[in-house]
Amino acid sequence: MLVAQISDIHARPDLSSLRSLERAIGWLGTFHPDVLVVTGDLVDDGWRHGYRLVAESLRSLDCPVHLLPGNGDDLQLMRSELAAVGTWINATGPMHFRTAVDGLTLFGVDVTVAGRSYGDVLPHLPWLVSALADVTTLALLFMHQPPFRIGIEALDQVGCRNGNALLSTLETMYSLPLAILCGHVHRPAFGRLGTIPVQTCGSLCPPNPLLLESRADLPVIDGPSFLVHEVSDGRLVSHVVSIPASDRSA
Ligand SMILES: [Fe+2]
Fold first, then answer.
1. Which superkingdom, per the lineage (predicted)?
2. Which of 203, 186, 106 shows the shortest CA–CA distance to 150?
């Protein structure tokens, strides 16, 4: 079972990150994952045409696609322009999803807070409890903002609040998810919430600098990247796939 995850396209009219999306989708179109999850921040500044272009690109894949919004998304535009791609439980509430693919359950929890850059999982724990109640399969949990401290101060100020309440809730379930898979950080990063692995997906827009513990902002050559999660026999291995950065002249 191969679950691809892309995140943080942040499409703008300069088209640079849309070109990175095209490259990622071209790669995935040949690779043939079983499912693709997009963990938010698709388009900047409510650019309606950008949502249309992202939808066209995603629809070219021949696998199911599931979407979460990020703090930068316009939820109304995202719903209307990506209706043919995403399926949401209701037309106005949080854009959670739950789906099963070959014995693996995928959950997406929309933790965005209107008008804020941080996320908050607390209001969505009742949904998670009901959505997880009858799940006895292996599961992956997706969200936009990570529910733990990433160590980059500017990002921790806009992370997902109430991660400990999420952990307490998950610990009451039949089994813990194999991993919590997030976006928002614009870098691949790996940690834990309790004993649950938490991973953040790289972005298709330019990555964030690695500003840890007041160290210097050193140049790096990180390109746009995404994740491919392989799940088999109860084990999860996640692979980082980097693609060439967009060249505006391309
Ligand atoms: Fe974000």
1. Bacteria
2. 186
pLDDT digits (tens, 9 = 90+) for 60-80: 999 999 999 999 999 999 999
**Whole-angstrom distance, CA of residue 210 vs CA of residue 201:** 14
Flag whether pLDDT at 20 surpasses 60. Answer: yes
Residue 28 CA to ligand 1 centre (angstroms): 23
Cα distance between residue 171 and residue 180, in whole Å: 13
The environment of the single-atom ion ligand 1, i.e. residues with CB closer than 5 A, is 41, 70-71, 184
Say if strands 196-200 and 119-120 run parallel, antiparallel, or are unpaired. Answer: unpaired
Distance 136 CA to ligand 1 centre (A): 31
Q: Which amino acid is at 109?
A: V
pLDDT given for residue 141 in this prediction: 98
Mention the CATH class of domain 2-242: alpha beta
Instruction: Report the distance separating Cα 228 and Cα 205, nearest Å.
Output: 18
- Other C-beta atoms lying within 10 Å of the C-beta of residue 206: 17
What burial letters (b/e) apply to 102-133, b meaning 16+ CB within 10 Å?
eebbbbbbbbbeeeeebbbbeebbebbeebbe
Q: How far is the CA of 134 from the centre of ligand 1 (A)?
A: 31
pLDDT band at 89, cuts 50/70/90? low
pLDDT tens-digit map of 223-238: 899 999 999 999 999 9
Q: How many whole angstroms separate alpha carbon 200 and alpha carbon 189?
A: 5
Ligand 1 centroid – CA 48 distance (Å): 18
